[in-house]
Amino acid sequence: MSELEQLTQLCERLGAPPAQAAAMAGQLLKRAEQIAAERGGTREAALKRLLDLMIQGRAGKVPEEFAPVPPPDSK
Questions:
Q1: C-alpha distances out from residue 16 to 10, 49, 50, 56, 70, Å
Q2: Mean pLDDT of the chain, nearest integer
Q3: Is residue 41 one of the residues assigned to a domain?
Q4: Is residue 50 domain-resident?
Q5: CB 38: neighbour CB atoms within 10 A?
Q6: N-terminal to C-terminal alpha carbon distance within the chain
């Protein structure tokens, strides 16, 4: 089974319809390659990070780096 097929199945298990799951899997792989090229890490590490974010988002958790910034005090 290819990596794309495995990711498609994962996306389906997380609740995406089959067509959307396939598109999501392709986007995850493409973005992981982009992140690895931009930041100099490995594609696998980038993909792991993206999958972690996706799973946290599915669970309704907001990672700290994405938490809203409180507005400055207006005194």
A1: 9, 19, 16, 15, 33
A2: 91
A3: yes
A4: yes
A5: 9
A6: 60
With a CB cutoff of 8 Å and minimum separation 6, the contacts of 56 are 62, 63
d(CA 58, CA 60): 5
- pLDDT (0 to 100) of residue 71: 85
Instruction: Give how many domains the chain has, as a whole number.
Output: 1
**74 occurs within a structural domain:** no
What pLDDT score was predicted for residue 53? 92
Classified as helix, coil or strand, 72 is coil
For position 42, what pLDDT does the model report?
Answer: 95
Look up the domain containing 32 and give its range.
3-60
